[in-house]
């Protein structure tokens, strides 16, 4: 299957990297989360790139640094320096991504031996690891202060861009030195000129630590060319607090509001900052002249990158001569705010909000304006919270249980696939080949592929890898399929196979004879399981295995196993059916960013008839005009569990693929959930 990554919305406001006094230069990424840049956390915002003493005007990265500074992407490490040769650590990169994703709260975060709790990067590191954006090392370490290599940085940008596909091969002369997992990302970056400045004599030097100047160039080329090719997704109920604060009176109130609402914060920063003289009343200074000119539109530095994502906008400003400053007019006229709810609020030592609220309505006539409110400087957070709680704000759409579960698992019912944490796309329904042998196995696999199945599960212990490989090759020839269209899983068994993993893994590859295997699992826990898994990791590096996983691993086993390996498993395959549901294990695994796959989904080994004949299941099947088997398989999918039912009957194989034209209600899901007996139908 084609390799893709989770689609994370890439906003134009990529967070700056700057220095804090307690850390070394360029160590802390800092900016407002979301779409706008908080200028209180930036340096040199009014200076051109050439003002950096260490950025010569003719340097290859000068234009990129100027672009990044002007758009609030990267600032200097001080007022006068940018440090283009400084490197970027893994913790810094995690923090940038975390803030780009609006600093989501991390529940039950992974713990790392080298991450200091409560540090500037701790939440970001936990979030990045939990979402499989930046994996930790084996032994429980994250590599907080380790530098980021070029191939790592390019791959993470590629992931964040939604893993856009790019045809062809990597054209750099040292392509053989690029890790297998980074090949697709580097190819994409090369095709879109994102590697500009990182190539010398067409060499990428992938293991070289990336520098700040190179990062600026990479982001500049990505953002200025809009290489992702995908629109930003809208977010239900997303809120923005935008504010202008010339004397820092409005700023704290806006920050309170953003914190209370879990909203993005955007400061409206004038291109030409206001001086004390500009703000002096009744002196015919700049502010006086602008307020007396209804057509005045002071320029704004930067913009909200994804205004379409926001449903609600809180708009804060001071009162100038009884009205909002004209820069608020500039802001409102810069966007299409049709259909959005706007909540104005102002700060004033004496004046009320007055007509400053209603006079703004014509500048965004298609918006839904709520009545504004005036606050005195120094208003408390509790007062702001009470005001917000009393507003009649639009509520985000309620997500049903089906959407919630499948979204958590990453299932896409349109493509009938899921993106694994390894970056590869895997079908969510397939064929299990346990008990299929000889010509029966060959014909069953071919029948499945003819019916649209693209996921085939086998194992060394099944004794049918040769037949599976033969069937896949025949189907490719007869149906015109490509190798990457078919996802093949196999497993190595405990005992002698895990004791001699390199030999056993190669034997599986030889028997299948498909060039590579899409996923290899350890069939059961074993005293040599870590050794075997680490050997599989080496085969991943060589491109012979694409993804790794485990079978028959539960919570305790995972807690002991995961800290000992480098590559997080992409999948755990366990027994799951209505009589044995693993309702506590499934979410635990999914919260680790690992996909769950169920074997024996229809009961297996003499139990299928009982399960298909269950009155609850057959009643639901009758209501939908489908079979009991289809109801059970759909129940699994709606719980975020991949299904691999086994069958040699072509009609049943086809029936088991027809799972996407009906949806079980929450009530029906609950009825099936109530059938759980904790009844395993096999020993492991």
Condensed summary:
Helices cover 33% and strands 12% of the residues. The protein has 25 helices and 21 strands.
Keywords for this structure?
21 strands, single chain, alpha/beta
Helix-strand category: alpha/beta
Give the low-pLDDT segments: 2-50, 226-236
Radius of gyration: 29 Å
Strands of the biggest beta sheet: in what spatial order? 14-15-16-17-18-19-20-21
> Per the principal axes of the C-alpha atoms, what is the gross shape?
globular
* Percentage of residues in helical conformation: 25-40%
Q: What's the number of helices?
A: 25
Strand elements, count? 21
- Give the integer mean of the pLDDT values: 83
Span from first to last CA? 30 Å
Strand content: 5-15%
Largest sheet: 8 strands, parallel
SSE diagram, text form:
Elements: E1 17-18, E2 28-29, H1 62-70, H2 90-100, H3 122-130, H4 150-160, H5 183-191, H6 212-225, E3 239-243, H7 251-261, E4 264-267, E5 269-270, H8 276-279, H9 286-291, E6 300-301, E7 312-318, H10 326-333, E8 341-347, H11 354-358, E9 368-369, E10 373-375, H12 381-389, H13 401-409, E11 411-412, E12 417-419, E13 425-427, E14 431-432, H14 438-450, E15 455-457, H15 465-479, E16 487-492, H16 496-499, H17 501-512, E17 517-522, H18 529-541, E18 545-551, H19 555-561, E19 571-575, H20 585-591, E20 595-599, H21 608-612, H22 615-624, H23 628-638, E21 641-643, H24 650-655, H25 666-673
Helix pairs in contact: 1-6, 2-3, 4-5, 7-12, 14-15, 15-17, 22-23
Structure explained in plain terms:
The protein is α/β, with parallel strands linked by helices and 684 residues long. The protein has 25 helices and 21 strands. The strands form five sheets. The protein has an eight-stranded parallel sheet. Strands 3, 4, 7, 8, 9 and 10 form a six-stranded parallel sheet that branches. It has a three-stranded antiparallel sheet with strand order 11-12-13. Helix 18 links the parallel strand 17 and strand 18. The longest helix has 15 residues. It is globular, with a radius of gyration of 29 Å. The relative contact order is 0.08.
């Amino acid at each position: 299957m084609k390799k893709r990554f989770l689609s994370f919305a890439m906003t134009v406001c990529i967070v700056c990297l700057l220095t804090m006094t307690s850390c070394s230069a360029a160590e802390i990424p800092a900016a407002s989360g979301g779409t706008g840049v908080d200028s209180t956390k930036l340096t040199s915002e009014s200076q051109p790139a050439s003002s950096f003493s260490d950025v010569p005007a003719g340097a290859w990265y000068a234009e990129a640094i100027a672009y990044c500074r002007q758009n609030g992407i990267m600032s200097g490490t001080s007022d006068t320096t940018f440090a283009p040769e400084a490197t970027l650590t893994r913790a810094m990169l995690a923090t940038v991504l975390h803030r780009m994703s609006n600093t989501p709260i991390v529940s039950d975060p992974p713990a790392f031996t080298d991450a200091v709790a409560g540090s500037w990067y701790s939440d970001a590191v936990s979030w990045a690891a939990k979402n499989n954006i930046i994996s930790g090392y084996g032994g429980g370490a994250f590599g907080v202060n380790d530098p980021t290599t070029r191939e790592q940085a390019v791959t993470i940008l590629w992931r964040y861009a939604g893993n856009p596909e790019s045809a062809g091969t990597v054209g750099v002369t040292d392509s053989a030195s690029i890790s297998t997992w980074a090949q697709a990302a580097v190819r994409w970056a090369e095709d879109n000129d994102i590697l500009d400045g990182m190539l010398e004599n067409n060499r990428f030097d992938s293991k070289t630590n990336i520098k700040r100047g190179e990062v600026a160039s990479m982001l500049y080329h990505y953002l200025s060319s809009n290489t992702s090719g995908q629109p930003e997704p809208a977010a239900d109920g997303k809120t923005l607090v935008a504010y202008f604060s010339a004397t820092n009176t409005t700023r704290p109130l806006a920050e309170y509001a953003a914190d209370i609402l879990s909203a993005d914060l955007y400061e409206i920063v004038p291109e030409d900052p206001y001086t004390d003289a500009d703000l002096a009343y009744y002196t015919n200074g700049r502010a006086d002249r602008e307020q007396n000119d209804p057509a005045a539109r002071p320029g704004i530095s930067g913009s909200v990158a994804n205004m379409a994502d926001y449903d609600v906008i809180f708009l804060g400003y001071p009162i100038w001569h009884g009205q909002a400053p004209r820069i608020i007019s500039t802001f409102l006229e810069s966007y299409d705010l049709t259909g959005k709810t706007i909540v104005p609020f102002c700060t004033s030592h004496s004046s009320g909000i007055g007509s400053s609220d209603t006079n703004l309505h014509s500048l965004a006539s298609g918006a839904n304006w709520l009545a504004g409110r005036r606050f005195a400087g120094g208003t408390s957070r509790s007062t702001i919270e009470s005001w917000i709680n009393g507003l009649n704000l639009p509520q985000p759409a309620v997500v049903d249980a089906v959407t919630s579960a499948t979204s958590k698992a990453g299932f896409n019912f349109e493509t009938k696939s899921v993106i694994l944490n390894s970056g590869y796309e895997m079908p969510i329904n397939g064929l299990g080949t346990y008990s299929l042998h000889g010509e029966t196995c060959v014909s069953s696999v071919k029948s499945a592929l003819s019916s649209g199945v693209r996921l085939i599960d086998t194992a060394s212990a099944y004794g049918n890898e040769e037949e599976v490989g033969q069937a896949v090759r025949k189907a490719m020839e007869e149906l015109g399929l490509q190798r990457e269209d078919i996802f093949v899983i196999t497993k190595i068994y405990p005992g002698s196979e895990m004791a001699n993993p390199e030999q056993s893994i190669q034997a599986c590859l030889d028997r299948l004879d498909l060039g590579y295997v899409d996923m290899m699992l350890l069939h059961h826990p074993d005293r040599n399981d870590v050794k075997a898994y680490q050997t599989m990791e080496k085969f991943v590096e060589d491109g012979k295995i694409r993804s790794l996983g485990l079978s028959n691993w539960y919570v305790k086993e995972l807690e002991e196993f995961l800290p000992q390996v480098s590559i997080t498993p992409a999948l755990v395959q366990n027994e799951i059916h209505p009589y044995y549901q693993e309702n506590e294990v499934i979410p635990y695994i999914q919260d680790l960013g690992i996909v769950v796959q169920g074997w024996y989904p229809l009961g297996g080994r003499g139990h299928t008839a009982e399960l298909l004949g269950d009155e609850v299941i057959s009643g639901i099947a009758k209501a939908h005009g489908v079979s009991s088997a289809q109801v059970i398989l759909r129940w699994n999918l709606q719980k975020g569990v991949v299904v691999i039912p086994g069958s040699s009957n072509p009609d049943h194989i086809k029936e088991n693929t027809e799972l996407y034209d009906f949806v079980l209600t929450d009530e029906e899901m609950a009825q099936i959930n109530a059938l759980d007996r904790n009844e395993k139908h096999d020993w492991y």
